Every structure is written in C-alpha cells, then in structure tokens.
C-alpha cells in the first residue's frame, strides 16, 4: 500500500469497490462481492443493519463502539468502519 493510500483509507475503500454509508460520527463501508452473508451484522445490531430496508445500513441508528464491534466480527471483511476525522 502506498503512503497516499495509508493516509486516505476512504479513497482506498471506495477504489476497492466498497460502498459508503454516511453517518454523523462515523461511516460504514460495505463490499457486496466480499460478503459471505454470515448474518453477524444483522444479528449483532438489527437497527443499523437491516437487509429489507433501503439503505440497509444506517450508521446513526447505533452507538459507535457497538457498531465497530459488530463490524470487527464480520468474518469476510466486507464491512469497514471509519470514524469522522480519521480519513
């Protein structure tokens, strides 16, 4: 990874095909082609992650720490998290 990409993780995620879901304090990124549909996200926080809703990810429906924990439990790496001010 180049220095530019280390300093701009959002740009890297978007270039890699992740879709951004904007929140007021943090953003969630999702890559549909990486997802293995384990369901850990929807079981971990169904108010943030709900497949029957559009958009299916609403970051502001959850607390930052709890959403970060759910994203870290994603077995495929299809979900990423960036706190505002970090990118």
Q: Taking all residues together, what is the mean pLDDT?
A: 91
What's the story with the biggest beta sheet?
Answer: 3 strands, antiparallel
How many domains make up the 3D coordinates? 1
Pick out the low-confidence regions. 1-5
CATH architecture: 2-Layer Sandwich
How far is the first residue's CA from the last residue's CA?
Answer: 15 Å
Order of helices and strands: HHEEHHE
Class computed from helices, strands and strand pairing: alpha+beta
In angstroms, what is the radius of gyration? 12 Å
Strand order of the largest sheet: 1-2-3
Structure overview:
The chain is α+β, with helices and mostly antiparallel strands. The chain has a single domain (3-83), classed as 2-Layer Sandwich (Alpha-Beta Plaits). The chain has helices spanning 3-7, 9-15, 40-44, 64-72; strands at residues 19-21, 26-30, 79-83. A three-stranded antiparallel beta sheet has the order 1-2-3, with helices on both faces. A hairpin with a 4-residue loop joins β1 and β2. The two termini are 15 Å apart.
């Amino acid at each position: 990874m180049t220095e530019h990409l280390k300093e701009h993780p959002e740009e890297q995620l978007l270039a890699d095909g992740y879709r951004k879901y904007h929140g007021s304090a943090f953003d969630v990124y999702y890559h549909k082609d990486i997802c293995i549909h384990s369901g850990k996200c929807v079981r971990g926080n169904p108010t943030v992650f709900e497949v029957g809703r559009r958009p299916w990810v609403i970051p502001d429906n959850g607390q930052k720490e709890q959403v970060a924990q759910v994203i870290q439990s994603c077995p495929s790496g299809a979900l990423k998290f960036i706190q505002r001010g970090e990118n």
